[in-house]
What we know:
Number of strands: 5
Low-confidence stretches: none
Mean pLDDT: 92
Largest sheet: 5 strands, mixed
Number of helices: 3
Structural class: alpha+beta
Strand content: 15-25%
Strand order of the largest sheet: 2-1-3-4-5
Shape: globular
Amino acid sequence: xxxxxxxIAETIGIRVARRHIFLCSDxxxxxxxxxxxxLAAWEYLKRRLKELGLSDQGGIxxxxxxxxxxxxxxxxxxxxxxxxxxxxxxxxVLERIIQEHLVQGRIVTDFAIAAHPLDALDFxxxxx
Length: 128
């Protein structure tokens, strides 16, 4: 890893991350929801994480995904390490996911599609 990559990793809070949310947004070919809905959800997620001090060094990583392959009932999100997949992730649902799952560690069962925690998998490798 280059020095500049290490600096970026530090800036975005990789070492302090407790959870990582991926949100299907800005799809090449929108299938799970209209492109505008996905982009509105992404903008909401970014803004709220920043307002709440959860982004950067706040312990929550976020990634905009082109497609999470559940191509209906979107926007779709997945939160790791719990591996909880969510549907209908418009701003009101995202707010619940932020408050209940990302902050309190409680899965929002009303909107959960499936779950498969990563800690249940053993890849046999430690941290880099």
